[in-house]
Amino acid sequence: MNWISRVCAVLLLLAGMSQAAELRGNVSDESGQPLAGANVVVQPLDGGALRGAATDLDGVFRVAGVGSGEYRLSATMVGHVSPAPKLVQVKGSDTVLSFQFKLEASVTALDEVVVQGRASQGSKEAALDERMDAAVIVDNLGGEQLRKLPDPDVAKVLRRATGMESMGGDPVIRGLGVRYSKVSLNNAAVSGTEPNRSSVSLSLFPAALMRNLSVSKSYSADQAGEFGGGRVNMDTWELGGAPLLSLSISTGFHAGTTFQNQRSGPGGSLDLLGFDDGSRALPGSIENSNTAIVERGQFSSIGYTADELAALSRSFDNSWDERSVTALPSTALSATWGGNVRVAGKPMNVLLTGLWNQSSHSKESSRSIFKGGVGGQIELQHSYRFQEFTQDVGLGGLAAATWEGGDWSRYRANLFYNRAVENETRFFSGWNDDRQQVIRDTRYRYVANSVLNAQASGHHVLPDWGLAEVDWMLAGSQGSRAEPDTREVQYELAPDGRYYYADETQSGSRIFGDLVDHSANLGLDLTLPLGEDHDGPRVKTGVAALVRRRDSETRFFQFELRDHHNLDLAASPEELLTSANMRRDGFLVREATRPTDSYEADHNLVAGYASLDLHPLERLRVNAGLRFEQSVQEVTSYQLFTATATPQVSRISTADWLPALNLTWMADEATNLRLGLSQTVSRPDFREMSEFEFTDIIGGHAVIGNPDLKRALIRHVDLRWERRLGPGDLVSASVFAKRFLNPIEVVIQPTAQNRVSYENADKATNTGLELEWRQQLAHLNLLPEGGRRLLQNWSLTSNLALLRSEISLSDSSSGIQTSGNRPLQGQSPYLANLGLSWEHPGWGTQVDLLYHTSGKRIVEVGARPLPDVYEMVVHELDLALRQPLGRSLVLKAGARNLLNPEHRYEQGGETTQRYREGISWSLGVSWSR
Q: Which of 194, 542, 755, 858 could form a disulfide with 702 if both were Cys (CB 3.0 to 4.6 A apart)?
C-alpha cells in the first residue's frame, strides 16, 4: 500500500499550496449547514470591477488574485436573507484571508427576496426549487444528495427515492416494472443493451457523473407519450462557474471475496482495462463462412465434409479449464477538469471527467426447481448448489460544454460514454430429475455493455417576439452488447463415483452474441408569452421525432460427440476437447443457431404537442396540453446464410391523442396542492411482437412473440400535497390511481416446456399512497430548549410507498397460469427508506445511516399447478462517512449491506433460491481546487 501513501502525501502537499491575496471562506445557514450555490461578490470601494464566486457543495468559496485595497464582501442566495456586507482591507503582505457568512432562511417571506443568482447545480436547495416550481409531480435527487450516498450507480441510488425500486438494474416506479418505467439522459432517449427487450439498465450509469436525478410521476404534453409508472431523467454534470480540478481514488473490501482464492475461467490480457484482447473472438474461418457450420448431406452441396468440420473445430480456442485467482480489492479512479475559454469572444465553460473502476464478488446459493405432484401438491424436481465469481470493470467519461452565444442565446453540448464489463465464472452441481443423475455444470461468460450518447441543444430568447423562447435539441445514442464466446460444459456422475462428459445440448457449447441499438432524437419547442407580462400566461408548442434501429445477431455452436470409444470422457474439458480429438470419430463442431436468433428492428415516431400554462387565479396554476404521436414499429427475424428464406416481419402502427391536465394550488409560499389527469400509452417491445419462437438468452426460457399485440392505454389520476419546511426540507403526501386498458402481460402456454408468450389482458389497476418527510431535527420542538442542542446537527430523510395492483386476464390470455387475477409482476406491496444524518459544522464531518426495505413481490408467474414465485422481504442497511481534511482534501468511507440479509425466493411455501450478498467496505480520498 506504499503507493497509496505516496499519492496521499502528494495530494496533501498540493492541498497546502496557496496563492497570494486569496479570499476564502464558507457560507452556511443558521443551523451551520453549508450552502452550495451562494453568490459571493467582492466589490472594490474605489469603483473597480466586481469579482466573485459561487460556493461549492461544501459551502466553500475562493476568490484569488485580489490586489491591495479596500473591498465590500457580500453573500447572497435564493431563499435567504443576505447579511450585512463585510468591509475588507487587503494589504500587500496578505496571502489568505478567511471569512464566514451565515444566511437566514426566508421561506415565510419569499415575496421580499430579491433573486440575484441561481442555486448551484446539484445542490439540495436547487433540487427542491425545481421540484416545487415544476408543472408536474416530480421527485428528484440533487448532486449534493448523491455525493452522500454509498451507491456507485444510478440503479442503486434511485432505491432511495419514494416509490422506487430496482430489479437487476431496471427501474421499477410505483410498482410498475421495466415495461412502464422509461429512462432518458438529459431529456433524450437512451439506446438499450438487452437483446430481448428495449430496457435501459440504470446500472450502466455512474452516479458520480450525475448532477441531478428526477422522476416525473405525472404526465405533461411535452413529455414522450410512453409513460406508465413514471420517467427517470438523468442530468449530467456541467461546469457551473469557477475552474475546477479534482482527483479521487478509492478502494474496497468485499467480505468473503477480497483476498480469497476464487475459481475463475480463462481470461484475456486486457480484461482489467475493460476490453477483450481477441482471445474470445469468433474464429475468422467461421466468421467469414458464407454458410452454416453443418455437415453436408449425402445429396446436398450445402455444408461441410467431416474433414472440413474437423479443421473448423480446431480453429476454436481450446481454453476450458478453471484457474485459481486471488480476488483483488475493488479500486476506483476518477479525474475531472473544468475550465473557461472564449469562443468567438464569448465565454465557454468546459468540463471533462473520466473514471475507471474494478471490483470482484463471489456468491454461493442454493436453487430448487419444483414440479406438479399428486393431489395438487408440488414436488422437488431439481436441486442445485451454485458458486459464482464475477469480476466487473467499468469505464466512463463525460465531456460537457456550455457557451453563452450572446445576451439572448445559450448553447450546450455533451458527450457521455460508459462501458460495463462482467466476467462471470459459474459452477453448479446437484440432482437432475429428468436425467435421474447428479450433474456438474461449468460456464464462463463475458458480457460487455456500453452506452454512447452525444447531444447538442440551444436556448434562445426572441426579444422582438415579446421575449418568446426557442429550445432545440439534437441527440444520438448507441447501445451495444457483446457476448463473445460464452462456454458451457456438463458432466454426469456415474456409479463408479467419477464424473463423465455429458452428451447434452449445453455441454461443449459456445455462444457468440452481438447487439447494436442506434437512436436519434430531435426536439424543437417554442414558448410564447401571451401579453406583456413575461410571468403571465404562455403557450408552449413543439415537435419531436425518434428514429431507432436495432441489429441483434447470435450464433450458437456445440462440439458434438460423434464417437466416445477412443476417448476418456472423465478427462477435463481442456484435455477432452483438444485439437487431436477434433475428428470424425471424436468431436465435431455443429452450428445450432436457430432461425430467430437474429433480428432487425425499427421504431419511427413523430410527435407534436401544444400546451397552455396560466394562472387564472393568483394561487392557481393550470398546465393543460394535448400531444399527438404517430408510431411505427417493425421487427424482421431472418435466418443466417439462407438468402432464399422469406424474412418474417411483424409490424404495429398506431396514432394516439394524449391529453394532460396538471393543476397546482399554491396555498401559501411554501405549500402546493397538485392534481394530475392524463392518458398515455405503453407499446410492446421488439421481441414481444415477433411471431416466432426464440430462446431468451438471459433466462433460457422458450419465448414466442405475438404479432397481434395492441398498444396499451393508461389513464392516470395523481394527487399530491407538499410543503417546504426549510432549505432542502419538506413533507409530502401523494395518492395515485392508474387504469390500464389492454395491458401487455406474460402468459404461459400449455406446451411441452410451458412456453412463455405475451397477450393483451382485459384490464389492470394500480393504486398507491406515498409519504415523504425530510427534516433537520433542530427545527423540531421535540425536546425542551435545554436539550435541543442534542438534535442540532441531525437530520432525517424518510419515505414510504404503499402499493396495490390487480390484473385481470381474459380466458384466452390466461393460458395455464395459476391465477387469472393477481398483482402485477414485480410489484411490492410496500417500499420504505429511512436515513439518519449527522453533520458537524466545525469539522465538516458527515455521517449517514441508510435503511431500505420492500415487501415480497412476484418475480415469476406460475403455471398450473405451480403457484407464483415470490421474492421475499429483505432489509438493507448502509453507512457513509465524509470528512474534509483541510480545504482541498476529502476522505470518504462507506459500508454497504451491513445486515447481510438472506435473499430468499418462495413458491407455494417452498424455498426455490437463497443466498447472501455479503458486506462490502470502501475507503477513498479526493482532492480538488
A: 755
Give the residue among 678, 646, 647 at the shortest CA–CA distance from 663. 678
Peptide bond into 865 cis (omega under 30): yes
pLDDT digits (tens, 9 = 90+) for 884-899: 998 889 999 999 999 9
Nearest-5° Cα angle at 663, 661 to 666: 165
C-alpha span between 202 and 183 (Å, rounded): 8
Gap between the Cα atoms of 300 and 312, Å rounded: 19
Cβ-proximal residues to 716 (8 Å cutoff; 6+ apart), any chain: 218, 219, 676, 677, 678, 679, 680, 736, 737, 738
CB 295 within 8 A of CB 231: no
> With contact defined as beta carbons under 8 Å apart, do 897 and 885 qualify?
no
Rounded to whole angstroms, the Cα distance separating 707 from 148 reads 47
Contact 609, 541 (CB under 8 A): yes
DSSP designation for 176 = B
Residue 535 buriedness (CB in 10 A; 0-12 / 13-18 / 19+): exposed
Quote the CA–CA distance of 510 and 573 in Å, as a whole number: 13
Rounded CA gap, 902 and 503, in Å? 36
d(CA 488, CA 505): 10
For residue 381, which phi and psi values (nearest 5 degrees)?
Answer: -110, -55
Sign of CA dihedral 714, 719, 723, 729: negative
Q: For 20, how many CA atoms within 13 A lie in the half-sphere containing its CB?
A: 7
- In angstroms, what CA-CA distances link 646 with 550, 640, 691? 19, 11, 14
What ranges make up the beta strands (E) of 256-345?
261-264, 323-326, 330-343
Q: What nine digits make up the cell of 813? A: 390470455
Q: Cα 702 to chain center, whole Å?
A: 28
Task: Supply 866's cell numbers.
Answer: 405451480
- Nearest Cα to 195, choosing from 557, 596, 505, 508? 596
Give the distance, in angstroms, between the CA of residue 72 and the centroid of all CA atoms in the same chain: 46
| Helix (H) or strand (E) segment spanning residue 145 | helix 143-146
- How high is the pLDDT of residue 906? 92
CA 380, CA 626: separation in Å to the nearest integer? 55
Cα–Cα distance, 307 to 290 (Å, whole number)? 18
Give the separation between CA 218 and CA 127, rounded to whole angstroms: 18
Burial 294-326 (b: 16+ CB within 10 A, else e): bbeeeeeeebbeeeebbebbbebebbbebeebe
∠ CA 436-437-441, nearest 5°, is 130
Three-state SS for 677? strand
C-alpha span between 139 and 178 (Å, rounded): 18
Q: How far apart are CA 11 and CA 585, in angstroms?
A: 65
What does the CA dihedral 455, 456, 461, 464 come to, rounded to 10 degrees? -130
Instruction: Point out the residues of the chain with pLDDT beneath 50.
Output: 1-20, 107-120, 696-700
User: Which residue do the cell numbers 395492441 mark?
Assistant: 710
User: 368 with 380: CB under 8 angstroms?
Assistant: yes
- The runs of H, that is alpha helices, within 602-713 are none
The pLDDT of residue 635 is: 87
Strand blocks (E) in 699-762: 702-704, 712-726, 729-741, 744-748, 756-760
Distance (Å, rounded) from C-alpha 568 to C-alpha 731?
71
Q: How far apart are CA 828 and CA 872, in angstroms?
A: 10
pLDDT value for 111: 33
As a whole number of angstroms, the distance between CA 800 and CA 853 comes to 10
pLDDT at 786: 61
Q: Which 3 state secondary structure label does DSSP give 280?
A: coil
Q: Which residues, at least 6 apart from 789, have a Cβ–Cβ distance to it below 8 Å?
A: none
For residue 300, what are the contacts with CB-CB under 8 A and spacing of at least 6? none
At 787 the pLDDT is 60
Q: What is the CA radius of gyration of the chain?
A: 30
**Do residues 708 and 663 lie in contact, with contact meaning Cβ atoms separated by under 8 Å?**
no
